[in-house]
Amino acid sequence: MLIHPTVDRLRALGLAAMADTCVELQNNPEAAEMPHADWLGLLVDREVTARDNRRLTRRLTSAKLRQAATIENVDYRTARGLDRSLFQNLTCQWIRDSNHLVIVGPTGTGKSWLACALGNKACRDGFSVLYKRTSRLFADLAQARGEGRLARLIAALERVNLLI
Question: Does domain 71-163 have CATH number 3.40.50.300?
């Protein structure tokens, strides 16, 4: 079977992960004994996984989270008054319901870290996130007002599912 034209066509269609998997399977002697349906299934699975990973990477990059915090790494031993079951069972339903979340506490207790962890979870669940310090957000709004593009900035902020 001539594989190169097929690989070239897959790449031309924007199916790079599928093309890479096709080459990988072609070079694997065990794959020659796989049924065609399994081959096709593996090609499609790899392409879907690659696209999901790219989407997640894009969401995390555009979120501009200050810290690489995750809900799974929350330290419940420190006296922050966090409810372990709440964080472990946390879904992003509060974002879907357009509810607000305010994190309060003394300086140095990890409020920003927790906010980044929630943002990371939201990105992994498919939501768009943007992290901005309040002072920077207000400065951006003032600058946009002065330049006559306030409506455009507000519209861009409204498109974000979670603004931290």
Answer: yes
